[in-house]
Design goal:
By secondary structure, the protein is mainly alpha-helical. The chain contains eight helices and no strands. Helices cover 66% and strands 0% of the residues.
Length: 172
């Protein structure tokens, strides 16, 4: 049975009003409709994801890869690993860690979910350091990629220097 978006928004609104009515009782949020807040929040998330997708699209196009690879989850990580000179299958470690986090949270083993989270952070640090080296940026740029990707990925994508990218060749 298919439901509309307004059905799900009304369910969320009922839940929020039921559980958090005491919080909103004496605040300015009491007068604001929760549907408006949820809509603004969802639009903000969609806007931020769109910025990241456009940036990855531009990075892929700059490196003669099809831009639509940025839309495919998993494949975009694979291509970013390849562009940074690493093996593409390392992106599978990140995807497996995400699945493992959801399994552990579902089984209420929250303390053990820290381990795959640390694996994801470690792999992203490795990826961003190599990506910043590949684009001839300093290593502090990789910290910016990790902490503020909404700023540093567009800076990387829309940088006007044409000779920045060089391919890292690994010898086996």
């Amino acid at each position: 049975m298919k439901h509309s978006i307004s059905y799900y928004l009304s369910k969320i609104e009922f839940f929020l009003n039921d559980k958090f009515s005491s919080i909103f009782k004496n605040s300015i949020l009491n007068n604001i409709n929760i549907k408006v807040l949820l809509t603004i929040y969802i639009l903000l998330i969609v806007f931020l994801i769109t910025i990241l997708i456009i940036s990855m699209w531009k990075i892929f196009k700059r490196n003669s890869k099809p831009g639509y690879y940025a839309l495919i989850p998993g494949l975009n990580l694979w291509i970013l690993f390849k562009l940074s000179g690493l093996k593409g299958y390392l992106s599978l470690i990140i995807l497996i860690s995400f699945v493992l986090i959801f399994i552990l949270i579902n089984k209420l083993l929250l303390i053990y979910a820290i381990i795959p989270l640390l694996v994801i952070v470690g792999m992203l640090i490795l990826l961003y350091v190599r990506l910043s080296i590949t684009y001839n940026k300093n290593k502090s740029y990789s910290i910016g990629l990790l902490l503020l990707p909404l700023i540093f990925f567009p800076m990387l994508a829309f940088d006007n220097n044409k000779n920045e990218y060089f391919e890292i060749v690994e010898f086996n």
